[in-house]
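[[Encoded backbone]]
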Amino acid sequence: MAKKLLISGTVVAGLAIAGTLLNDHLKTPKTYDAPPLSEWRPDGPRHAAPVHPVLGINDTFRSLHASTRNSDEVLTATAPNVELDWVVEKHLFITEGPSIDRQGNLYFSPVTPSEPVVLVSLDGETGERRWSITGKPLSQGGGTPLVLEDPDNPGQQIIYLTLYERALAVRQDGSVIWDVPTGLREPALQPGDDRNTHNFGASYHPQSDSIVGLLMDGSVFALDRKTGQPILAEAFTIPGAPAKGATTGRPGKWVTKRTDKVMKKVFGEDPQVGGRFSKVADVLFGGGVKIANYFSIDPMTGRFFIAATAPDEADGTIDGLAENGALYGIDMVPAGNGQYRLEVAASTWFKGGTGSTPALRADGTRVYVSDDNGNVIAFDQALNELWRQSVGEQILASITVASENNELYAITAGELFKLKDRGDKADVIWRASLDMYPEVFGQKNLNMLTASITANGIAVILGAGFEKGTVRLPVSVGVGLLDRETGEVISYTEGVEESVATTITGPDGGFYIAHSPIRRAVSRALLGPLVKPLTGGIARYKPVRNDLLVRDAVCAAAIRLENAARFQQDNPASSEADTLQAGVLLKQASQAATAALEEQALDKSLTSHLKALQLSVNVQNPTTAAEQADSLCTAIQTASLPPNTELASR
């Protein structure tokens, strides 16, 4: 999750002057041709994640970073071409989510909304509100809902939401299974106190079959998945002192005040915390919090990995505040009578700290975080450091972790880097080549958010704005797809609003973006009408040219099946994981083929071949299926037609 601002210090007058040069030329993005297939290929066995009856598979974004491992990787393909379809719930400020179920329905929890709701579900195709659950006014929200399988009702899923004092389990139709107190009580606040009660999202602990919540103040609770009953024998709070506020890099008071005013006009104001931008700045630059992001649970061992603050004494000064950050490995240990206790099993701290969610490799053997000094750092399960690699500037969010080729992706204030884990070191492979807008008059193309790994490329939120040193003021924003091999932009669609959540793609190959303007709010505050008004809610960017999505999904399935056949004997776990992904992709291709036929962009005869290929994968014969998929990949490329072109008789 992107939990850092793209500004620091005072915004110089030159940026405002540059803003006056904005015109239709600067605001019009480049048009991209229909992209060819990427040259990217797996170069060995993949790291295989366990398949769990409750966790399911990461075929879509089931939580903030796709899975409880926080890899930001999904098994489906992203549509190479999309267009803005709808924007709904514009009055809501959404910093995490949405999560998506197997049918494509959306679930999210807004932050301090003017409407008293804590959980909202939308129809993924139309954007219509399906249902909502009421909460107390101006709730801090529960972060990203967690979507899990219901093993007692195969094919159905359950949505879990954790707040501070309340937690819920809800069926897809909105019926409540349980709605229980967490056992925590929000502290009574006095004027000027920090309200550190936000919950970044629920997670799942397989070994205890429990739903886990972690709060910004470091409180942790665990509830039985089936009943919602507390299972911790004693209260537990993450070690560490409240964070000491940063003395440098923070926006000036006049910028903060101006930005608070801009956001208040759109989203209202929480009287308990003051301005919305002020609160975000407190979190990002210290402000007394312990937890500034989500956390990970390794499904194989059950160990929690939590980035927080270090103990007070770790910085050499006993003052009740922490200047350093920490990474904790925490185990849930049986305490008898069906209850558990939490124990710190490992820990390490960083100078300056970290704001990233710890991200786990698929096999759980490596943990990746970033620090405030521009490093990606790899640890083993015991939190022994394995290597660190600098990208040359501060990394602003969680590391995206691929199960294939040992690839990692890291973002800075405006850049995206691909790294490769070599075992005892890492190499920077590329810096993304962003070329969406002309870089003239001080305008610069920017990467705007944590990237997501999909089967046919890297899904991204990009944009353009002004840069002056470390100051970046985004003006334009959109969604796109990068070539995984080269880092080049292969498609880009101008959008509506930025997000500080994650780059979320759905089972249909489209984008579903939660609106939480923070950086654009600063741009709007400083550049006024030169920047489009802010908006909240959720936006859908639907697939168009579905024939290209069919092509990419089928061809991506083919290369995974080839890899599955290659390692069927030597690495069965890798082979099974590749076969599983191929099945997900072929199902996606079949669904996209229906839309492609409606667009008159695909030969109808190819759909029967898709069904036959799915059957071949289902019987787990990767060699035969790989040959068929490769042939179908070639056939689709030959038979694909431009939109609105009459199909030739065959």
Notes: The first strand starts at residue 82 and ends at 88. Residues 572-598 form the longest helix (27 residues). The radius of gyration is 24 Å.
